[in-house]
Amino acid sequence: MTSINTNFSIIRLKTLIELTGLSRSSIYEKLNPDSPRFDPSFPQKVPLGARAVGWYQGEVESWLKSIRAVTASTPTNQ
């Protein structure tokens, strides 16, 4: 039985949308340095072919954990 290291598994846009809850346009805004919504910590896309891209699942999971850590440490207004 082989185990798959999810750090190097590649996910496609549809899965990225499901994991992050972001729309396609929001994802590409986070990747665009010219956008006011640019996020340098957001995982970079990986070219898979002439017109195909993916993202490393491990990088996406790390980014989600970092977002969770920031929101967990932010006090809420009551």
Number of helices: 3
Largest sheet: 3 strands, antiparallel
Helix content: 40-55%
Please provide the ordered H/E string of secondary-structure elements. EHHEEH
Count of beta strands: 3
Low-confidence stretches: none
| Content of β-strand | 5-15%
Measured on Cα atoms, how large is the radius of gyration? 14 Å
The largest beta-sheet arranges its strands as: 1-3-2
Write down the overall geometry.
globular
Structural class: mainly alpha
Total number of distinct structural domains: 1
What is the typical, i.e. mean, pLDDT? 90
What is the straight-line distance between the termini? Answer: 51 Å
Describe this structure in words.
With 78 residues, the chain is mostly helical. The protein has one domain (10-70). It contains 3 helices and 3 strands, in the order βααββα. The chain has helices at residues 13-20, 24-31, 57-73, and strands at residues 10-11, 46-47, 53-56. It has a 3-stranded antiparallel sheet with strand order 1-3-2. The longest helix is centred in the last third of the chain and has 17 residues, at 57-73. It is globular.
Salient structural properties:
3-stranded antiparallel beta sheet; 3 helices; 78 residues
